[in-house]
Structure formats: structure tokens, C-alpha cells
Amino acid sequence: MNLTAVTVTVENGHMVAFLGTSDGRILKVFLMTPANEYSSVTIEIDKPVKNDLVLDASQENLYVMTTTKVFRLPVQECASYSNCTLCTQAQDPYCGWCVIEGKCTRKIDCKRANKPNHWLWSPDGVCMTITSAHPQNMSHKAPGKVELTVSPLPELTESDMLWCQFGETTNIAELRDGTIICDPPTTIPPTPKGQDHVSVSLTLTFGEEKMFFASATYPFYDCEEAMNLSANLPCYSCASSRWNCKWDWKNHICEDSSLEENVIKQNMEKECPQFLNPNPPIIPMEFPTIVHFEGKNLENYQGRSFKIGNDQFEFEAPVDKSDNGTFSFQSKEFSYGANETLPLNLFIKTDKVKIDSKLMVTLYNCSYGRSDCSLCLAADRGYKCVWCEEEGKPSKCIYENLCKTSLTNTCPHPVITRIEPKTGPLSGGILLTIMGSNLGIKAEDVKSITVAGTECLFREKFYSVSTRIVCQVGSVSEPSQGEIEVDINGKRGSSTNEVQFTYQQPDPTGISPTKGPQAGGTILTITGNNLETGSQKDVRVFLGDVPCNITDFGEQIVCITGQHDKIEEVHVIVHHGDTENKLDSLMFAYSKNPTITKFFPKNSFSSGGRNITVTGTGFDIIQSFSIVVTAELHGPSRRKKRQIHSLDSKKFEGKDITKINESTIVFSSPPILEDPENYRITTLIKMDGYNLVLNIENNDPFKYVADPTFENFTDGIKKQVNNVIHAEGSNLNKAMTIEEAQAFVGAEPCNIKTLTEKDLYCEPPEVQPQPKRRQKRDTINNLPEFIVKFGLREWILGRVEYDTRVSDVPLDVILPSVIFPMVAIIIISIYCYRRKSQQAEREYEKIKSQLEGLEESVRDRCKKEFTDLMIEMEDQTNDVSEAGIPVLDYKMYTDRVFFLPSKDGEKDVMITGKLDIPEARQQTVEQALNQFSNLLNSKSFLINFIHTLEKQREFSAREKVYFASLLTVALHGKLEYYTDIMRTLFLELMEQYVVAKNPKLMLRRSETVVERMLSNWMAICLYQYLKDNAGEPLYKLFKAIKHQVEKGPVDAVLMKAKYTLNDTGLLGDDVEYIQLTVNVYVQDGGTDSVPVKVLNCDTISQVKEKIIDQVYRNLPCSQWPKADSVVLEWRPGSTAQILSDLDLTSQRDGRWKRMNTLMHYNVRDGATLILSKIGISQQPEDNQQDVPGERHALLEDENKIWHLVRPADEVDEGKSKRGSMKEKERTKAITEIYLTRLLSVKGTLQQFVDNFFHSVLNSNHVVPPAVKYFFDFLDEQAEKHELKDEDTIHIWKTNSLPLRFWVNILKNPHFIFDVHVHEVVDASLSVIAQTFMDACTRTEHKLSRDSPSNKLLYAKEISNYKKMVEDYYKGIRQMVQVSDQDMNTHLAEISRAHTDSLNTLVALHQLYQYTNKYYDEIINALEEDPAAQKMQLAFRLQQIAAALENKVTDL
Q1: Fewer beta carbons under 10 A from the terminal one: N or C of the chain?
Q2: Structure confidence by residue, pLDDT tens digits, 317-364
Q3: Cis ω for the linkage preceding 601 (within 30 of 0)
Q4: What is the pTM of this model?
């Protein structure tokens, strides 16, 4: 692109340039320092702008000339910006926001533009906002006036009327000393359930027209609701809230603060009466245990009795008090088999009111997941699990006190059940996996392994307790077969005769084909004897020194050849473990890549289907051909910062290619876009691994032209006269010849005689043919159609009526000679037809009708589903506008990103914030931790600390991740310092990779502390960007997937859905279902019903989830009730019935039980359902329900549960094995038919996927300063280390932002939103996340019919996404640099805003645990470092250790 024209003008003292380009655009440039191109307008694609750019006399329009046309272009489009934000984002020097008129105008068009802050100039980027309010909040019981500060505040006069709309109340606002005073609203909305305040909208407007001025929300708090925020902690919830509340312990209420004494005031939550520190903290299931605990601040409750309990298990017991002031209770025999452990929160009551209880014990189940002795004895010793062998009972793992026999510390002999692989080469060297039970408690228990009498070397890192041993097999001299024997602590176990390992010698003998192109891509098949030796991972194939990628392993080995730099014959070498076999008698020939010398014809219509003959050389060595057409938009028009870009590059692929001989191929041009003239077209022929542009000497490429147009026949009918039919149109012969064109009258061909640019003449059949589709009782439609076919496209121009005025034969001759014989023939024909074909005709018509109906049904369903989703998402968008996107607050966001993936998950101490520190030592510990914080702020100490930990072998990758997250929280108050540490460590890491000459591997994984620090740094710096920019498209994508999944059946057992993007989660059966709308009443939730859409095939739990989703949609997901905590009741009339997934009425078939659905209960459309809490039942006494015994019976092992589809591998006992195999094959074939649903779902969701990708990969929108800052840092370091490879820098940037942050957020929306991600929704998100990952790599993905469906699904879009990534990186590189000072200011603001909300003290305490664990190593490292010696860092650490561990220091 070159500049071809320029003109300059001045607006309000600012210089603006208009630049013409060679590709037909006008660039608008604001001549400032530096110059800013703020808009680009396409005039005429690929037509250069002439140098005569002229402004009219008023300077309001620009006249632009191209080679053929003249255009008038307005110099500004201020009126098109509907609000101040759009106006200022445009950066147009002509425009500004006129405050009193409420619109974007030129300065001369704004009445008060010369008064301060009345016309806000667009390039300044400033709009009026409410910056502060006094008071910042108020009690809903005592509302008062609010003073608002607005910036920038326009200069107003006494006559100017300013209105304040506060909630539903509108009053005149008072202007006093630069502040705006608003009266409170007359009515304040009720506080939402689960919150302690309500935010009321506050909008300022101007003048009688009430022009928008500024807006904000204002909080009114409710102390009565504040006490309910934390379960079992009413006093703590009240006193620790951010509002001005107090706790009245006498009346047990939370109310607004006052001067009253003997209450617990705000921030005095430590004085709350409370119970804490249960001992033991873990208790076994099925065994009553006495638990002791402490009380605190109970002076006002002397002499009272307490009860302890838990709602989940409906447990309540008295509390005993001992003489030493502690308390205790005895638990009941809790029973819960769904997990190994279960946290149990306990409440404490006195006089029916709850006292604060911080009591939580963990129930554990020894039996869960421990099916053999070794697994049992490997359990945590604190669980006291034993392997109990009681006479007459099956052996099992239970709590020691439940075992009535003597305990044993030894296990039975090991058992081997399976090995993989079953064969290996004589030279050994492959890994053998041995599976079974009682294979040891720890790796040290494995003493020896022999395979077929040969020692097998134990590989400890692959060992799995009790169930798996991996070893490397040794070599033998000759083929043999034998058992596997293991020695586990002196107890030997051998495999059975069915589980044997065979040593055999693989012998490759042949290859096919024997030659292929130098570019690779040839599918090579290797044949021979015993090739299926070992497993695929043990086998490697080389052609010379070029690896051949194995795709199929079995009796034959299939691989795809790689690229070779020479034309030569090479040996084929096959490695099985340590065995190398070279095919000496056969060699593979790398031949010269194919060439193209000519092709004809030179073009095609955009609808494709034209046969193109290509002549060249080397086609005989090619196995597979395909055509790929790329269309890139010419010079895309763009308007910076406000216009959403459309995808400007598309790909189209064709597989219809025929190889005639070694020098000729013929392909059918694939269909592409309707307007090819607007695109730059490139046609590639893909030949195995070689791609060749269809272009002769780079100046004669293959071209596409727009399809021709035809004029339909007048009134839809053309009379055939003079034995010729004439069709008219335009561009008919632009890419078509008479020989290629086709025309039909009905089903018969019409012989084309003439084809010009505008006319087509053809000779029809002599006798009027039948139409292609006959219409009974429709004379007009029984005329034959006239069809023109060019390539793949057909035009039906109307119907043809033959001229019948040609007979002069007398009627008395016609009757006897024609009609009578005809009648006889007809009668005979009818007789034969009725006798022989009547049944066949009926069957044919029936099948034909069914197929036509099915085709029409599918077409209608596709249209309907897309329309339904658009309507539904419009409703979702409205819900988002009303309720807001449920973005988590900063603390919960960081907790989930940093610590939710940890081994303890939601129980992690960093999330709970609970430290087990005795009260007497609390102050000492806090002081010591503050000293430890100061020590961490010493760069010498922290660098030494991190280096020392990373040198320890026991410091695992998981611990590095956790340590880095703790460090992030501990240093959050000084993010500038944290960034400095991260930079220092990065420079060291980069040096290591550059010296090792592997720079591309840096940042690939989180194998070091600094790599995880980067992940956390990005998460911190991009939180606001997520809230303001990327959050909405991500949330809408999540909601769209959720809606798409839930609109069709979801199997509650298999977790498979009819509508999904993931082929492994696709429901492979056509389940019949009907959508119902049920009216739901919520008990104690008002008298209005809520309509909810459900499916009649939904299980009752699925119905509950959909009801909860709809009823509570305006509340955060974390405040929704769980499906298992509510009861669903159906009232078909005067009776009532409680619905459940399984009960006595459940359908049974042998050992199979089917989950109940609405269809099972015969619930109809419009039915009335009642949702209530568990324990509230209004069912009639005679209504059968699943009593506990029945429920238990339903879940026993002998009962198998299914919902929509039984698992394909389960076959009834009565069927024969042969029949079972046929059934499986049929099921598999049918499953693959439904893969086309993936395309339907993908097409429906495409806009939401594109919107999300645009929101995170668009450098023309807001780019977070942290991204620009870190990318520049990577560019600087690459330049410093003289790394010229763009791939390396691309990989660094990809691994630091898209793959490290965005993929994590995309796969885990619950990290940023308060939502629940269902398993079937997660499966579709994983496909989009994988597409995002593929888009960020520069590696070309070669796809074939064997490629995973998930890869094929986005194959067309992936190139567009790759270009978006490239443009994003390029755009960021061209942005203005972010200085260290600017970055530090930004980081300091984040620290100031959020540090107080984080559990900093807990993070310091957890960090110290690593200091304690590696204490000696850290002290030694500090004493060896001269800088640390100067600052006496070792001495300071010893003092801190003495204080934290309650020891007397020896220093």
C-alpha cells in the first residue's frame, strides 16, 4: 500500500490530514505528536485514489476521485456516536461531547462550547463521572442527603436545572460549592436474600429534557441481613461487616450502631462468644467419637446448656462441659459413602438461638477407594485404617476399632491380573506395566521383578501404590515365553497362564510405496513378521535420519514420511526398543517434488464445480490430492477503537480430484464466496506434504469470478416455439463454455447450441418430458422445469409449455389408429402393474415421502434452533443488563486462580483463612510473621530463599506452584517489588535456556517458581480487564453453550449431551423428547408462579437444576440451593406426589434400573410443581415414596442405573456372543451418524466464539499495560541475546499470556464468575480452549479423515484465528511503550485497592512452613552469601524461627 494523495485542513486550531492510498482508501490522520490515524474509509477496492483531493468551500466535505468515479466524503461523522464514551473513543479532532445537548457535535454546533467543561473534546478521552459520594453509604433505616463530586463539572448558572433520579425518586438537585446534593429516595428496595446491602441507581440529568449527565450506584446497608452472611457465625458476620453495625448479644440481633454499651461493635468480632478448635479434627464414619473443643468469650452464657448439631445429617446432641472449662460431645455413627472425606460444619444452640461456632470436623471413610490390603495400609496414619479379616465376612479396610479380630500389619501375596504390552524384542529396553493388587504400600516394597525368567529393572517414578509396577525388561538370546514374578517385601506373586510375556524378534520385510515426494507426507506401510512387538510408544521408524511419524501400529506399521533435504534413496530403519532392524533389500526413494507446467481453463464461477485439467510432472508419486482456496479481503475498512472487525480471511477445500496419469490431474473447483472480486484469491494444490500455488510463472494465477445471473421466465412459463428455448442473463460465458454448460427440460437434456455473454439457446427434446417432481392434481406444476446447470449450481428459470399446434391428420384416422390401441395398451399395463407392482409402489411412495419429510424436518429444525438461540441469548443479554455479570470480587477471584487447583481445593487454608494458633500465642506469632514479611522484602534473602528451595529434590512441581501463589499474596502490598523479583529471576532463567541453546522451551511449563509467579502476575494485572472488557463475551459464550446443551437431552449417568462440541461427550442415540413449560411455585416465595422450560426426558434432579437456575437467576450461583437440598412436588389435581430420581415406581429390567423422568410420572405441559426445602412435605399419606430401605436397595451393586441410553458394552445375559458383537457394530455405526450435530452446534455458537476471540486478541481495543510491558521486556531480551528467530519470540509471548492465562480462564469460567460449570458444558469449553491453543501456535496442523473430530471442527477457522494472534502481537509491538514508572504506578494502585482483602498473614505463615522444612539449607545459603552476611539475614531468620516455634534462641 502506497500513499497517492494528500490534503490538509485545520479544525479548532488542530491540523488534520486526509491521505489517499493505492488500494482505494482514505486515511484520516490527526497531526499531533506522534501522529494518530484515527479512521480509515474504503472508497473503491483496489482502485488508487487520484492526487486531486479537494475540500468544498464549507470545509465539511472531501471530494475523492478514482480512475472511474468521484465520491463525496463528509470530513466527520460526529452525530453517529450515540454517547460520550463512543464520542471520546473515536479520537476524532472534529468531535466533542456537548454536555447540555447530550450529543456528539463539532465545537461550532455546541451552544456553550466556550464555557469550561461544556464541550469535551474527543481526543482528550474524558467524560463526566461521579468520582465520590459523602457519606459513602447509609443504613436503609436512616436515609439522608448525599453530596456528590462530579469531574469534570461544567460551569452551571442558577437558572440551570439539575435533576437527581435516586432509584424510583426524582428530585431537583442542589449545587453548592462545586458539589451536587441529592435527596434520598422515598422508597428503598428490599435487600436481596443472601446480601447485606442493596445498590440503588443514581442518575444526574440536566434541563427540562433531562439530558443524561452522569450516573453511579449507591449502597444502602441492612444490619439485620448482615448477621446471616456466614453460616453458624451470626455475631462474627455482624461485627466484621464493612457497614456500621453492632451485635446485641442479649437480644441476639444485629442492628445499626449507637452509643449503647455492653454490645459488640464494628471490627470487634474477636470479642464474639464462640466455640472453636475441635479435637480430634477428623473422626471416622460408622463409629461414635467423643470430640473436645474450646469456648471463648462466654462470660454472658454462664450456667446455660448447649446443644451441638448438623443439619445435613439431622444430628443434634447435648454439649458436656468439663471442670477445666473445655467442652465435648459424642458424635453419632455417621454414614456417607460418596467420598473418602466429608467436612462437617457444626452449629451450637442455646435457648434456640445460635452461638458463633467455628467447629468443623472431617468425617473420613477407610473403605472408600481402598479395595485391597496395600491400599488400606498406605492410608494416612491419622485415619487409623486397618485391613480387617473376619471369619465369614469379606475382608475390607475399616477403622481399627470396628475390627473385632486381631490387627495385622502385613498383606497377602501380590496378585498380577494384567500386563501391557504382552510382547517385547529380544534386546529388551521397553517399559512393561504390571497391574494387579497388593503390589506394595510404597516403592521401596518392590524388591525384585522377573519377566520370563529375566530380571526387569524397576522404574520407581511410574509406581502406583498397590495397583501398578513399571519396569524396563532385560534382553534375552532367543525367543521365549514366561510368567511375570514380583517380590513384595519377601512375598512373591506370579502371573497366571493367561498372563504371559513373550520375547520375539520383529522382522520387517517390505514397504509400500517405495517412493514419495521430497516434501514428505507419504503414507508408508511397513509389512513383516512380529511387527506388533511392544507398544506403539516403543517403536520408532526412520527413513535415513528423517523420522517417520507412526499413525497406526499392529500387524503392519503405518507412518507418514517427513521432509528430506536431498533427492536420494534411503534405508528404512525400524526400532523396537533397543532392537534396530534395517531393510537392506528395499530402500525408499525421495523423489523430486511435483511441478505444474500449465492448467486449463483459467477460471471458475464462485459456485465451483468446473473441471480444471492440470499438466505437470511427478504426480505418480503422490497418494492424496486436495485443493485449498484462500480468500483474503482486499484492504479491510476499519475505524479504530469502535468498530468490531469481521473475519477477513476464509478457506475452502475441495477433495474431488482425479489422477489421469503421471503428468495430468483433473480437479473440480470448490465453491467459495459469492463476491470473489472483493477478495484476493489464492488456489493451492496439496499433494501429500507438498503445497503448490496454481500459478504459471507467478503471473497467471487461477481466478474465480462471480456467478452469472439469469432472468426467470415471464409468469414462470416459457412456450417452446420453433424447437428452441431462449434464456437471458449476464456474464454467462465468463467462466463457462458450450461443452461444459448443461440445460434440462424436466429430466431430459436440452442441447445447448449458443452461449454468449447474455444469451443461451438450446434445443429441447421433441416430446414434452415429465417434470422432475410430479404434482398430483396440479396441471401447471406438471409442466417440465427448465433447468440450467453450470458446475455445481443450478438455476430453475420456470416451466416449459410445448406448442401442440402441429397436427393436420383427420380425427376419424386418429381415433382408430391411435386411441383404440392406446386404450388396449393402457388396460393391459394397468392389469400388469396392479398385479406385479402395487405393493412395491406403495412401499416406494412411503419411503420417498418419509425421506422428503425428514429432509424438510432437518432443514426447518436447523433454522428453528438458530432462531431460538438468538432469541434466548437476547433474553440472556437482557438478564445480564438487569442483574449484571456475576464477576467474583478480587479476593475470591485470586483465591480460585491461585489455590483452588491445590491438593486441598476449597479447604485450602488460604481460601478458608483459618490458622490453628492458640490464642495465647496469637500476638507473638503475628509480630514474628510481620518480621518475616520484612525479611521477604529483602531482595537478597528472597532470591536466596527461592534458589535454595528449587535446589531441593523434594521440592516438587506442585509445591513450586503453591509456593509462588503464597509469595504473590504475601508480597501483594508491594507489587512493584514483586515485579522486580520476577524480572530478576526471569533474566536468570532466560540465560539458562539461551546458554543451553533451547530458548523455545522457556515458559512451556510451570517448572520453576518464577514461571508460576508470571501466571499470578498476569492474573492480578488482567482482573480489571476481565471485568470491563473480556468478561461479557466470555460470560455470553458460557451461557450460550449452557443453553445449547440444555435445550436437548443430557444423559445424567453417561454425562453425554445431544448438543455439544465434544465428540466424546456426544449422545449417540436419537432420543425422543418434548419440551414442556411447567409452572413452579416456591414455598415461602410468594404467590406468583414462575414458568420454566424443561424436557419430558429430564431426570428429576435435572428438572430441579433448571428450576433453580430460573427462579434464582438474579442471585449469585453461590447463593442458590443445591438440587439435593430441595423437594419437588407435583399436584396434578387434588392429589400431590413428590418426584424423585429413584423410587419404588422406577422402571426395572433385570439388574437395570432406569432413572425417573417427567415422562415416567406423566407430567404434562402446563403442570404445576412446588419447590420446597427438604423436610417439608405435603404429600398424601397413601402416596408411595422411596423409603430409606428402598433407596438403599436402589443403590446396591447388583442394581445398575441408566437414564437415556444403556452403555453399549452392556449386553443382556440372554443374548448370544455373536449377536452381541453385531449389536455393538450397529451401535457404533449409528453413533458416527450423529457427529454432524457437532457442526450444527458449532455453527450456532460461532458468533459467540468469535466475539470472545476478538475481545482478547484485538490490539485496536484496550490492551492492558501489563501485557505491553511484559511483551516489550521479552523483545528487549531477545534483542540482547541476539535471537533473530521470530518463532522463538512468538512462543515466548504465547506461553506467557494466551496459554498461561486466557486458556486457564476459558476452561474454568468459575475462576472469574460466580457460576457452576457442568461437566457437559466443560467438555465443549475444552474444545474451544484447544482451538484457542492451536491458534496461538505457528505449527501447521495437517488434517485428514483420521484427525480428531475436535480438530476438524474448527479446521476452516483456525487460519483466521492464527492471523488474529499474529496481528495482535504485531499491534502490541507498535504501541507506545509503557515506562517502568507508569507500570509501577499501575501496580501500586492495584496493591492499594485490594491488599487489605487478602489473607496476607495466613500466606506468611504458610511460607514459613517451607522455611522450617528446609531451615538448615536456607541458613547455610545465607551464611555463604556475602550480601546476606552484611545484612545479618541468617541471624534475623533465626530470631523469627525462635519466636514462631516458641523456642529460646541460642544466639
Answers
A1: C
A2: 999 998 888 999 999 988 887 788 999 999 999 988 999 999 999 999
A3: yes
A4: 0.46
